[in-house]
Amino acid sequence: MTSESPGRIVLLTASHRVAPGLLSWPAWQALRGADRVLCPVAHHPQLPYLKEAGVAVEHLRPTAEELVAACAGGRTVLVLPSGEGDRDLTDGLARLAGSGRFAMPDLELLPGSYDLPGARLLDLVQVMDRIRRACPWSSRQTHTGLAKYGIEEAYELVEAIEDGTREELREELGDVLLQVVFHARIAEEHPEEPFSVDDVAGTLVEKLVHRHPHVFGDATAETPEDVKAHWLRTKAVEKQRDSVTDGVPLGQPGLALAAKLAGRVRTAGLDVPPPAGEGIGYELLHLAARAEAEGVDPEAALRAAARAYRDAIRAAEGL
């Protein structure tokens, strides 16, 4: 004589970052095949779509014991937990299974939808929006007031790249991303020319596609040098600049500025050597131009030498 089947519990999860109703085929099969479908959340985003599909849903928040009992006789009970899950229910099921006093149903965790790559960026935008509205400090910030943080975070990112751990790199990338999202959120409030983070991303996508015809078009590029040439030609057409120096930010660090100007001159094929003059500034200008010609980033080279100098100082101090 066979014992009665303890049945089956299906916990159907769905990403809140995917439009409700866009469930996988196995999820719809499980919903239609279940003896009972329970949902403890009265305003679960999937409910209107399940109703439209003819799936009967009971608004119940069962305990672990009640759920096990509902599966008796081989029945399948599907539960739609909230986006945050139902810790009390899962902990209760684990407790019952560990007690050894219950014939436990089979338990299946069935993902009904999955996050696409980049989905957590939606969470970031949502969190930033709430902070902008509710935080006394963040709600008063302006583009101008935040500018210094953008510079600081960029330098901290460079330091993490050159001398940090993977964890530090991940954190500093997040801090730089925060500046982008924060500025985009502020930009939404402009009375005449608002734009959003979607507009920022859309502009960037268009630029990347346009400047990579060897990836998205019919052009060919076999080497990194070919790619750079494509990029520079496209930028020249887009910007319609009068001088190769147009678009070079003069506020960047001096060595980087000198190297950038020397690079523009070299790429354009101009014969404009660095001017001769008296003083350390002209000497540094010539060194930066030489570094650029040799493929060396003078800022990175000086930072590396400065770190070695720092280590020598600490060694002399006995640290």
Secondary structure layout:
Blueprint: E1 8-13, H1 25-33, E2 36-38, H2 47-52, H3 64-70, E3 76-79, H4 87-99, E4 106-111, H5 120-134, H6 143-163, H7 166-187, H8 197-210, H9 213-216, H10 224-239, H11 254-268, H12 280-293, H13 298-316
Parallel strand pairs: 1-3, 1-4, 2-3
By CATH, the topology of the domain at 8-111 is Cobalt-precorrin-4 Transmethylase, domain 1
Determine the structural class based on helices, strands and strand pairing.
mainly alpha
* Helix content bin: 40-55%
Instruction: Indicate the proportion of strand residues.
Output: 5-15%
If helices are DSSP runs of H or I spanning 4 or more residues, what is the number of helices? 13
- CATH architecture descriptor text of the domain at 8-111: 3-Layer(aba) Sandwich
Give start-end ranges of low-pLDDT stretches.
none
Q: What is the strand tally? A: 4
Q: Taking Cα atoms only, what radius of gyration do you get, to the nearest Å?
A: 30 Å
CATH class of the domain at 8-111: Alpha Beta
Report the span from N to C terminus: 79 Å
Overall 3D geometry?
Answer: elongated
What's the average pLDDT?
Answer: 91
Strand order, main sheet: write it out.
2-3-1-4
Sheet bearing the most strands, described?
A: 4 strands, parallel
- Could you spell the SSE succession in H and E letters? EHEHHEHEHHHHHHHHH
Short description:
With 319 residues, this protein is mostly helical.
Model description:
By secondary structure, this protein is mainly alpha-helical. Among the domains are: 8-111, Cobalt-precorrin-4 Transmethylase, domain 1; 117-195, MazG-like (Helix Hairpins). Helix content is 55%, strand content 6%. Strands 2-3-1-4 form a 4-stranded parallel β-sheet, sandwiched between helices. Helix 5 (120-134) crosses helix 7 (166-187). 14% of the residues are buried.
